[in-house]
Amino acid sequence: MKTFERIYEAVKLIPEGSVATYGQVAEAAGSKRLSRVVGYALHANPLPGIIPCHRVVKKDGEISSAFAFGGANRQAELLQAEGVAFRDGTHVDMERHCVTFLPLIQEEKGI
DNA sequence: AACCTGACTCGCC
DNA sequence: AGGCGAGCCAGGT
């Protein structure tokens, strides 16, 4: 199990209609400092359609401005389609949709 | 093989 | 309050 694998597993654990910050995913993957790697991992996104990268936002709930899978606006669209409320055009309502439970990914699990 | 960079975050100045 | 540097991992040059 590599770091990327754990990151992907963590992202896939994010329930529909909810979002998680890069930090949350990083923490679930092993270390909060992996946040940068999380972004890189999602950028690589070898499993499009399986990994809900649109549910991953920055700590403020702001959607990454960097070119996403189909454009930052597209990401906001998908989130709204899942029932995620927005504070404005680029910030999701963290109070209501930020996941509070994100289990640590076990390496030996082979998951 | 080494160095640089990148969808981030935190701590210091 | 705003800016800068450090830390993390992987992939490309």
Describe this structure in words.
The chain is mainly alpha-helical and 111 residues long. The chain has one domain: Arc Repressor Mutant, subunit A (Orthogonal Bundle), CATH 1.10.10. It is 38% helix and 4% strand. The protein contains five helices and two strands. The chain has helices at 3-12, 22-29, 35-44, 72-81, 94-97, and strands at 20-21, 56-57. Helix 2 (22-29) packs across helix 3 (35-44). It is globular. It starts with a helix and ends in a 14-residue tail after the last helix. It binds a DNA duplex (13 and 13 nucleotides) through helix 1, helix 2, helix 3 and strand 2.
SSE diagram, text form:
Layout (H helix, E strand, L loop, with lengths): L2 H10 L7 E2 H8 L5 H10 L11 E2 L14 H10 L12 H4 L14
Parallel strand pairs: 1-2
Helix pairs in contact: 1-2, 2-3
The protein binds a DNA duplex (13 and 13 nucleotides) through helix 1, helix 2, helix 3 and strand 2.
> What is the N-to-C succession of helices and strands?
HEHHEHH
Q: What is the CATH first-level class name? A: Mainly Alpha
Number of domains: 1
Structural class: mainly alpha
Average of per-residue pLDDT values: 88
* Rg: 13 Å
State the distance separating the first and last CA atoms: 8 Å
What's the overall geometry? globular
Give me the CATH fold name.
Answer: Arc Repressor Mutant, subunit A
Give the tally of β-strands: 2
Largest sheet: 2 strands, parallel
The proportion of residues forming helix, as a percent range, comes to: 25-40%
Per CATH, the superfamily is Winged helix-like DNA-binding domain superfamily/Winged helix DNA-binding domain
Total DSSP helices? 5
* Low-pLDDT residue spans: none
